[in-house]
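Check my protein:
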Amino acid sequence: MPQPPKPGSKSDRDALRAQMTAAGCSPSEIVTEMRTRWRLRPREAWRHVHGMSQQEVADQLNALATARPHGEAVAADASLVGKWEKWPGPSGRRPTLATLGLLAELYRCDVEDLVDFEDRRRLPEGELRILRHVAHAAITPPAPASPAVTNPAVTNPAPEPACGSDLVHTAAVKSSTWASWAETSNVGDIALEQLLHDTRAIAADYLTADPVALFIRTCALRDRVFRLLEGHQPPRQSTELYVAGGYLCALLAWMSSDLGQLRDADTQGRTAWLCAELADHNGLRAWTLSTRSKVAFWDGRLRDAVNYARQGALYTAPGTVGTLLACQEADAWSVLGARDETDTALQRASQARETQRGQDDIGGLFSCPPLRHANYASAAHLRCGDPQRALAEATAALTQQAGHAYGTVAQVHISAAGAHLALNSPDGAAQALQPVFALPPERRLAPVTARVQELARPLTQTRLVGTVARSLRQRIEDFALDSASRHALTTS
């Protein structure tokens, strides 16, 4: 019997490319998705986006090189293209900047799109400086001309003296003029600090405030960051802006999924990942992958949810993200019915909490305090057929730990209610759900509504038929009719 193709096979790649192209995704977004799903090197991912074989790439590279003025064939073949793609692995060969330039032309992307952090660590310092200069020029276009940001050495070039000391002096003046321009910036360090402060405030406020109002506020701050990136600032400040923009897009991804808009959440997640790559920031990478795992989970793509969580755990980042990623992996495994994998992931979550170092970069929504940890654990135990353990976990969390977010607290109550139903106690379930039913419509986030609706199935079982069970079924139906997603649609 033939074996099914491995994940990331040509059929998988072709299907993903077709689906994302039909959805309006850009080649760079498809590259990001391929790299996230199948851990491809950047040059290989770009080739697959264009549906080309290694030999086809080699042939077209040779043609491109010889077509240039004074061009010479690079003598590429399929084997050499494969080695360029594998570098800096042990069987790879480092592509020169000229080769990267040809590949970028062939794939219709920028040179920096073809290299990642591992490549940069192994590039010679001279080539790395050139690459940084090219990347900064590409991703930081000059702002509209103004006295503050226009380079006078370029816009008002002084005539070059023919020879002598004047020639040397004029060259020095031009260098000095350019240096003065390069030091200017459209954003200061205090403003950058304020942007990060405002991002943290949004992440904290989202735990207790109206989600639609916070979504609008987050969009406005993200737009401000993106406008600043279109101006002129030193590379260090550009990096900080990419970090801020990435966290804001990750917040928007999480919020979008809470409002039931999963496709839009995926788009925000891809943009957050791009910012993380441009900033080369492991904390942002980890939290972005946590967000993408959450979106995939509620979209029913459980294997993707596991893969995103596992990939996020590969990045060393301070704070509680390691705990949350392991919890999210356990969450997906429990729905798949994989009890051993669920238990292993929950053990890793506890180990991550015990070995945690440092504080969360952002906090608030992007943190995993004990109550949030308990929420995932109780839900996983319930799905794996251990209602007693789920109830004990939920009860201890609600009585011994401070609240994290109204959505998290609601889901812990839902886990407790599910455990009561599994233990043939509809009265206990009704009592556990009282705080959930009391949530106003604008706070009935999509995950909360979905988990409440899951309780309707056990309520139809013969052994739970009765007045309390009928009342609970009706209240669940009424609860789902007016939710945060509906509220968002009527107020937008």
User: Anything to note?
Assistant: Residues 137-149, 152-156 have pLDDT under 50 and may be disordered. The two ends are 54 Å apart (CA to CA). Residues 15 and 21 are 10 Å apart (CA to CA). Residues 10-139 form one domain.
